[in-house]
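RETRY 2/3 - previous attempt timed out on the joint model. Re-submitting the same 875-residue input unchanged.
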Amino acid sequence: MSGIGLELLALQLVTGVALGAIYVLLALGLSLIFGLLNVVNFAHGAFFMVGAYVGVFLFGLTGNFWVSLVLTPLGVGAIGLAVERVLLRPLYGRGIDYPLLLTFGLSYVFIETIRILFGLTGMRFPTPPELRGAVNIGIGFFPLYRLFLIGITAVIVFALWYFIERTRYGLIIRAGARDPEIVRVLGIDVSKIWLLVFGIGTGIAGLSGVLAAPLQGITPEMGVPVLAEAFVVTVVGGMGSLAGAVIAGLLVGIVVSMTSLFAPEMAKVSIFILMALVLLVRPRGLLGRAGALG
Amino acid sequence: MTSIDLTAPRDQPHWLDVASRYRVALTLAFLVIFPWITPYEALAVNILVLGLYALGFNLVFGYTGLLSFGHAAFLGTGAYGCGIAIVSYKIGWFGAILIGTASATLLGVVMGFLAIRTRGIYFAMVTLALSMCVYYAFYQMQSLTGGENGLRGVNLQTISVLGVSLPFINPTVKYYVILAFVAVAIWLFSRILASPFGAVLEAIRENEERARACGYDVARTKLVAFIISGAFCGLAGALNAIHLSIVPIETLHYTTSGQVVMMSLLGGMGTFFGPFVGAAAFLLIEDVLAMLTSHWQLFVGIIFIVFVLFFPRGIWGSLLQWAERK
Amino acid sequence: MSDPVLVAQNIGMSFGGFVALKNVSVSFARGKLTAVIGPNGAGKSTFFNVISGALTPTAGQISFDGRDITGTPPHLFARMGIAKSFQITNVFPELTARENVRVAAQALSERFQLFRNRDSYGALIDKADALLTLVGLGARRFNRARELAHGEQRSLEIAMALAADPKLLLLDEPTAGMSPEETREMMNLIARLAEQRTIVLVEHKMKLVMGLAEHLVVLHHGELLAQGSSDDIRNNDEVKRVYLGQGAVAVGGRA
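RETRY 2/3 succeeded.
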C-alpha cells in the first residue's frame, strides 16, 4: 500500500463524497416518507430505477439533459402521488406492515413494466457534454460530473431544509410528524400533507436515479441493490432523521470508496459491517429519535 | 389445521376446533397424498420445501407479528451449510442436513441479537440489510461457495437410511425422504405453538406493551422465536440443497426473503396450514404465468398487491374465516 | 405510616424542558386503598407511569418492600409483584377472555416451556376462570376480548392484573369512558378487591374516590398538594381552591 499517496487518498475521499451524494438523496426521500407517514417504502429502489428510465427517455425526446433533470423528478413524483392516493391510502390504520408489503409488490410491477417498455437489457446514459472531463480541484483532477453531483445534492439538501424549517408547509409537516392529531385539530387536512410528502420523497428518488444513470448505466434491476444500500444509510443515520440521512449518506459513500481502494473485495460488505457496528452501539442510529423528523 | 383453537366463542366446540386439534395429522395426511395431485413430482418437492420455509417464517411474521425481510439468509445458510458439508467435506447427507440447520440457527442468534432491539417496521429494514451482508459474504468466499455461479455438485445419487440404500434421484423416493424431515418439523412446530411459549408469542403479536406489563421479557421472547424460526428455515434450505443439487447465490438475496413474505400473505399468515397453501399458490402462479408470458413477474406483483389490499388474510385465512362463520 | 409497600421519594420527572413532576414524596400503606387525584395536567399519569415502571424518574427514588427499584425494566415490575391496569383499554384483542388471563397468570413461571401443551396447565386455567368469575366475566370466558363491551374489557384487564398475584395493584382511571352503570359496577368491584389487597388508584373524578379510599394524595402542577383521609382532603383549603378554580366539572366528573 506504500504506492498510495496522500493526494490519491484525498481524491478517493472526494469520490466517496460524490458517491455518498446519491445515498444522501435516496435516504432523504426514504426518511422523509418514514418520518411522516410511518411507511417504509420498499419501492424506493424501483422509483430510483424509474427515475433513471424517465430521465433517459426525456433526454432522448428533448436532447437536453437539463430539461430531463427538471422534469424527471416531477414525473416520478407524480407517479408517487398516484401511488399514495390510490394504493397506500386505503391501508392507513390497518397496521404498519401493509404499506410496506404493498410497496414491495409495487416494485415488481415497476421493474416488469420497465422491462416491457424498454427491454430486458440495460441502456447507457451518456454524461451530458457540458459536464464531461475533469477539473483540477487542488489535490488533482476530478471528474466534473461527480463535482456536479456533490453540488446539486447540496442544493437539494438546502432547499429541503429551507422548505421544512422555514416555510409554513414545513411547519405543518414537522407538526404532523410529531402528532398528526394536532394538525387535524388545527383544521388542516393531514392526508394532503402525506400525499405531498410521498410525492416529494419519490420525486427525490427519481432525481437520484437520473443523476446516478451516467455513472453506472441503467438496467431494470438497478434499484434492487440500491434499496438495500439506502436502508443501510437510513438505519445508520437514524430513521426519520434528515440530518442523520445526510451524515450517514456521506459516511457510507466514503466507507465504500475507501474500502474499494484498500480492499476491493470488502467494498460491498463494508457498509453492512458499518451498520452492524452502529446497531451495536446505537440501536436507533446516529441521530435517530423515535420516528420524528429532526 | 387452524389457529383458532384458543378462541372459540361458543360452548359447543366448532368443527374447526376439532380439526385444529388434529392439525398435524391432517396436514401430514394431505402431504402424503400430495404428489399424486400435482402435475409433476419436482413441483411437489418444491412446494414441500418452500412450504417448510414459509412455515418457519410464519413463526415470526404470523405468530409473533415481526416482519423480517432477512429470512433468505436462513434458507441460504442452511443450503450452503449442507451443500458445503457434502461437496467440500464429504460429510454424509444426514450429517450435512444437521450442519446446515445448525449454521442457520447460529446465524439466527447473531442476526437476532443485532436486529431485535429495533422496533416495528425498522426491523424489516435491518433484517434485510443484515441478510444482504450474508449474501455478499458468501458471494466473496468463492473457493467454498462457488461465488456468483452458486454451489454446484451437491449430488446425492443414493442415500443410505438405516443401512438400506435408496435411489434419491427417483422423484418419489426424494419426496418421501424430504417429507420425513418436514413431518418432524411440522410436529415440532405444532408443539411449540401449543406450548406456553407459543401463547406468549401470540400475546406479543396482539399487544406488545401489555405482554411486557404482564411480566414477559418481550425482547428475549422475540429473539428466541427468531432463532427457532431461523432453524426451521435453515432445515428448509438444507433440504432444498439436496433437492436441487445446487445452491444458487440468489437463494441468499433479499428477493428470496420477499418470496417467503409473498407466500405467507398469499396462504394466510398466522394459520397453521397457510404456509403450504401459500407456497403451492406462489409456485403454481409462477409456473402457469411463466408458460404464458415472459413478463410473469408483473402479474405476481399485481396479484400480491390485490391480496394486500383486499385479502390480507390470504387464501387459507379467508377460507377459515368463511368456514368459521358457517 | 407504619408499613409502606411502595415509597416514592423526591420524585422528579422532566421531558426535555417540561417539568411534569417536582419533588413528590408519597408512601403507600400496605393493605389500603390509596387514591391519587388531581385536576387535568396535575401529573397523575406521569406519576402512575413512574410508580408502575413504564418511566424511569429523572430524580428521586422508588422503593418497593424496602428495596430500591428505580430504573428496573418494566417487565420486572410485574414479576416483583406490581401489577397495573392501563388508562386506555389494553388487552389481547384476538385471544379469548380466558386466554388473556391465562397468559397473564403464566408470566409468573419463569422458564420457557417450548414443548408442553398449554392446556396441560390445569391450575392456570382454573385460576383464570376464578378471576374471570371474580370480576363478573365468568360467562364470557370463551369470547374473544375484542367482542367484549368497553366496561367488560376494563374488568378483563383487572383480572389480568390480578393474575400475577400482585402485592400491589395499580389502576389508572379504571372508569374512564364508562357509562354511569358501568362506573358503578367498576367501583363496586374495586371496593370488593380492596378488602384483601393493596391498591393505588389514579383517578380524575374526585367524587368517585371520596369515601372509598382510605388515603388520598392530591397532585397539582406536578407537585404534592396535600394528602390525608377523605375528611382531611375535603376540608383542605388549598385543595378546595385548586378544584374550585376548575369549577364544579372537575369535582363532579369529566366534562
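Chains C and A do not touch (no CB pair under 8 Å). Closing ticket.
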